Amino acid sequence: MPTASIPFSTYRDKVLGCWLGKAVGGTLGGPYEGRPGPHSLTFYDPVPDRMLPNDDLDLQVVWFGALRRRGLPVDRLLLADAWLEHVHLWPDEYGVASRNLTQQIYPPASGAFDNGFTAGMGSAIRSEIWACLAPGDPQLAASLAREDACVDHHDEGIYSEVYLATLESAAFGESEREKLLDIAAAAIPEDCRVARAIADTRRWWQESGDWRDVRERIIEHHGRQNFTDVAQNLAFTVLGWLAGGEDFGEAICTAVNCGRDTDCTGATLGALLGIIDPASVGSEWLKPIGRELVLSPGIVGMHPPATLDEFTDQVAAMALDVLEYYGSDVEITDALDMAEVRLNVASPRMPKPDRVMLSDPADPRESLVATGPLVVHLRYPPGIALLPGRSAQLELRIVNPSEGALHGKLIARAPDGWILSRHVPPPACGGTEGGNPSSAGLSPQAGRERSEEQLDLPGGKERVVLLTVTPPAEGPRVYRNPLDLTFHFGGFGWTVTAGMVTTLPWRRWSVEGLPDACPEVPPDADLVEAPGHFQPLPDGPCAFASDVKIPYPSPVRFVVQAPRPLRVWLDGELINDHDGTYQVPAIHRARHTGTDIQCRRGWRRLTVAVGDGPEGDLFVGLGGPNWDWIRDAEWRDPTPAQLH
């Protein structure tokens, strides 16, 4: 039985206040996004004639549309599918996640693997949908937020969305600022960067009471070169709230005036204040932007509601389903007038949530491959990327969410040239549960890309299957290596596919300072297998070379960064020379670390020389003119003298 209740009229007003405050804050901060500040805004500048489109709201509309179409439960694979279908925006972590998902590396591995923006603001800005679907139930809101954030983030990026979803959900029943901040702080590790930055901000505000002074301290202690970093921006959001008090306009202006990711800080604080007190979003702020729901051009294939009011009604209707489905202690009362709308969004009933709720997304090696008819998790080895010619173990965890037992078989297939071997741990307790994984009884099948195993899956139980895979020792590193898993039960068969990525080959050797001309790869150069687009730098000046295959004639942006001076050559021609002071591994805002080259199709040799300097990573990324990665580039060991 629910132990807390929210009158529907109060709930709906708060949801509408959330979206209106979000639109106001995002429109206020949008023109100043990325500018360091401090600014001195007191109102819109320029004054708009409609709300500005903003990914802060875009992605929440996408997630909600996917839930309306597919139904509950909320899970990371549903959101990942929606991402590829509808989100054609590729900056920073969005592009990394899209690249990983294209390679069929699914969440949470999609958010952790080879990602220089795990602490970006992309997940924090989309927390409100989970608070509105789980009003007054911060734990449920946080759980849903984790499913979301792990699609394109890890660690700090996940903590940031959990923090805000907790804060915003609690604000449906609590309005006292310090209590709300304490509730949110308890939801994330106290030693994470986000928690430390916010705790410092609260303490510094008590000591100083001057937002400009506190802002400088935040930048000094928690600032990052990447303007979308979550720790500094959530601290600015909280600072705006502390400095603005109950004055909506002063609060969001202060948050935006701190600079950095201003559309996000303004929109997040506007949404929170709109939940706490919908009336605080004054008409002077609403009149210029109207109530039309405006999406970015990069959101495609959607049938979104026309207005924020219509969006509010749809969200309110689904919240009734979410609270009931997850067995929340919170009830929205007196909602009979929503019956017609609710019928339009009623979710199909799936197995109980405890059978489909997923493991902690903090594990960066796990990938959710399927949620039905079986739930299939794949756990990669450390680093995720596989070394050619070397065997590695993949762990499949297969869950039967139904009540009845299933008896059948699993056929696993790897790409041509790969080697598969297998082992299924024997069931414990008379065959009712899967045992612990073990290497005993592993049976190599040299030269085979296919394995077959009988599976007995009691209702509600799981089995663990260990697959040992060995990528080909020679040849190029292709961008997509599918592992097809075909299940046969009761005369019915279906296939799900997981991706496997291999390391990227580089030859590395020492040089005397930065050479003026492109150095040749010496015969004794070390072969270095990079787990992705980042690799650690050794001490002293050094050079790297690799061959990359451009799949089609195209302009390509070569982004090369290190914390040291470096030079970059393509097929022996110098294309970049910079001092290494800028390190934000983004395709679209690479600044002087990126060079646009019109490339022919085929193999090209990329050579990088790095001078002496501090420790750190060498980052090499290839992007296109639309801010996206060249997702289908392939790599090879640069030993052949002739490029083709």
Summarize the structure.
With 644 residues, the protein is α+β, with helices and mostly antiparallel strands. The chain contains 18 helices and 22 strands.
What would you say this structure looks like, in words?
By secondary structure, this protein is α+β, with helices and mostly antiparallel strands. It has three domains: 4-342, Orthogonal Bundle (ADP-ribosylglycohydrolase fold); 365-500, Immunoglobulins (Immunoglobulin-like, Sandwich); 504-636, Jelly Rolls (Sandwich). It is built from 18 helices and 22 strands. It has helices spanning 8-29, 55-70, 76-86, 92-102, 109-112, 128-133, 138-149, 156-170, 177-185, 193-208, 211-222, 230-244, 248-257, 262-276, 283-286, 308-325, 339-345, 353-356; strands at residues 4-7, 330-333, 366-370, 375-379, 392-399, 406-413, 419-423, 450-457, 462-470, 481-489, 492-500, 504-510, 526-530, 534-536, 542-550, 554-561, 566-570, 573-578, 594-599, 602-610, 617-623, 634-636. Strands 12, 13, 15, 17, 18, 20 and 22 form a seven-stranded antiparallel β-sheet that branches. The chain starts with a strand and ends in an 8-residue tail after the last strand.
